[in-house]
Design goal:
- With 494 residues, the protein is an alpha/beta fold.
- The protein has three domains: 3-162, Flavodoxin domain (Rossmann fold); 187-420, tm_1862 like domain (pyruvate-formate lyase- activating enzyme); 426-493, OB fold (Dihydrolipoamide Acetyltransferase, E2P).
- The protein contains 17 helices and 20 strands.
- The chain has helices spanning 12-27, 58-74, 85-89, 91-95, 115-126, 132-143, 146-149, 206-210, 218-230, 261-270, 289-295, 313-319, 325-338, 357-370, 397-420, 455-461, 481-484; strands at 3-8, 31-33, 48-53, 79-84, 101-103, 189-192, 194-195, 214-215, 235-239, 248-252, 255-259, 276-279, 303-309, 343-350, 374-379, 426-431, 438-443, 448-452, 465-473, 489-493.
- The strands form six sheets. Strands 2-1-3-4-5 form a five-stranded parallel sheet, with helices on both faces. A five-stranded mixed beta barrel has the order 16-17-18-20-19. Strands 6-9-12 form a three-stranded parallel sheet, sandwiched between helices.
- Helix 10 (261-270) runs parallel beside helix 11 (289-295) and helix 11 (289-295) packs parallel to helix 13 (325-338).
- It is globular, with a radius of gyration of 23 Å.
Length: 494
């Protein structure tokens, strides 16, 4: 059996899309591996590695290049396909790394739904490559695949301009073809209901990489949720680049009904029976009374993530964010009224151009007043093609780093305190797919926990919802994000 190896960087959208491509590959007869490239040195060499990349920060791009070079060295006789947002904005840079690389721009990623059968036919005729030269020849053959040849040239340019005709050139490709109701690597189902972004924040080039906002029709969202529910999943994550921009039209007997995200969530709750919904991320201004009335439903998970970025109104204005610090405070208050002690996280960018000590103090006060459970803190990363890339008053990396350090320490302390508040309490949790004697799970309020059970029981419970008694909260201070994400609590089946 030919094997294809997958690596994923970045957001939940990328994770869903990778899962979908992997499922298409498995259905076409390929073996699939999705463990990190450093996890095993003895695995069978794949005929192809597929790397789904991110461009949100320079660090994300650097990590992508590191993984690409690592895989090329580890599997010298394998070809590689690189896709995602980084592949969209820096195609030429990636291609220069090695002749074994094929780049599929992120906006054409959905064409990969048809890729596995073509690739299998190609291997059936030519066989697996046995040398680096044969791998390069295979990559050349892959570039000749008709859908890739038909990609308009403007989609492969490094500096696609926002709001341009070129940025919309991919509209003929269905951005929602990459979907699956069975998940090979993740224990919880996910659906991409929105893609792209029509906002033009000064620091972000996701709008460049993914194009204008588009939404999946409500009826199709419901169909996919029902398929996941019918497959035995107990939870589904609704995700997108910017769920605030979701706009759908539902055809009814009385005519067309326009829907925003709140309408969609209510429609899904009304037309499903048991499955629970987790919301990936929201802008603060979207958290209004109408939405909070709906998220109070028992099948909406008490876990929320707000895209905040700063507590200074001056910086928010410079970023072109469509809300104020006061909007953030109101959103958090509304969420706590709708749910009992919910997990509320946020994103913060430290060191945006022109951010003074006073501005950062306002951010610190916002974090304290809102009592965020966790903060994903990032130093400002100047992205080519964005307004902030050439802004004056750039903040030294040392100062930005100090500010990130404060935010990260606050986040660890806050999350530890939040976890401790659940000691002795019982929560619902979805068991992760693992092959060890100590299992892991994610609770309804997004605490990552250890489960004390035997290996066979954990295997039987993988992907299922169980009740867990929280025994002890672990102090995660001083640990990096990856460590805390897998070791928050110790618990046992209740």
């Amino acid at each position: 059996m030919y094997t294809i190896h997958f690596e994923t960087l970045g957001c939940k959208l990328n994770q869903i899309e990778t899962e979908s491509i992997a499922r298409f590959c498995a259905d076409a007869g390929f073996g699939v591996t999705m463990a990190h490239s450093t996890a095993s040195q003895a695995e069978t060499a794949p005929v192809l590695s597929i790397v789904n990349t991110c461009t949100v920060t320079a660090k994300a791009e650097q990590k992508a290049r590191r993984i690409i070079r690592m895989l090329l060295a580890k599997f010298p006789f394998s070809a590689m396909l690189v896709t995602g947002c980084y592949a969209q904005v820096e195609k030429a840079q990636i291609e220069q790394i090695d002749s074994r690389i094929v780049v599929v721009p992120g906006t054409a990623k959905d064409t990969l739904a048809d890729f596995p059968q073509f690739f299998m036919n190609l291997l059936t005729k030519a066989g697996a490559p046995k040398t680096a030269e044969e791998a390069a020849a295979l990559a050349k053959d892959l570039r000749a695949w008709q859908p890739l040849k038909q990609i308009p040239a403007e989609q492969t340019e490094n500096r696609l301009k926002p709001n341009s005709k070129d940025a919309k050139a991919i509209e003929s490709v269905n951005k929602f073809r990459l979907a699956t109701d069975s998940f090979m690597h993740h224990s919880r189902g996910s659906i991409k209901i929105q893609d792209g972004c029509s906002n033009r924040c000064a620091y972000c080039r996701i709008c460049i990489a993914r194009g204008e906002s588009v939404s999946l029709a409500p009826a199709e969202v419901l169909k996919r949720v029902r398929d996941i529910e019918a497959g035995g999943q107990t939870e589904v994550v609704l995700t997108g680049v910017n769920l605030t921009l979701y706009r759908g039209i539902l055809n009814t007997e009385s005519g067309e009904r326009k829907m925003d995200f709140a309408d969609l969530l209510e429609y899904l709750l009304e037309n499903t029976g048991t499955i629970s919904f987790r919301i990936s991320s929201l802008y603060p201004e979207r958290v209004d009374d109408a939405l909070c009335r709906i998220i109070a439903h028992k099948r909406v998970r008490p876990h929320f993530h707000l895209s905040v970025q700063s507590g200074s109104n001056a910086i928010l204005k410079a970023m072109h964010r469509p809300y104020t610090a006061e909007t953030v405070v109101a959103a958090v208050e509304n969420l706590r009224k709708a749910k009992d002690n919910p997990f509320i996280a946020c994103d913060i960018i430290a060191g945006f151009p022109g951010e003074t000590d006073k501005d950062f103090e306002q951010t610190k006060e916002l974090c304290k007043n809102c009592r965020f459970t966790y903060i994903h803190a990032f130093p400002f990363s100047p992205r080519p093609g964005t307004e902030a890339y050439t802004m004056k008053n750039q903040i030294p990396q040392r100062i930005a780093g100090e500010r990130v350090k404060w935010l990260s320490e606050f986040a660890c302390k806050s999350k530890t305190e939040y976890a401790k508040s659940f000691e002795g309490k019982t929560l619902k949790a979805v068991v992760e797919k693992r092959e060890t004697n100590i299992g892991k799970a994610v609770t309804e309020n997004f605490l990552h926990i250890y489960i004390e059970e035997n290996k066979q029981t954990l295997k039987d419970l993988a992907g299922k919802e169980v009740s867990v008694l929280i025994k002890q909260a672990l102090d995660i201070s001083g640990k990096d994000e990856e460590t805390e994400a897998t070791a928050v609590l110790v618990c046992d089946g209740a």
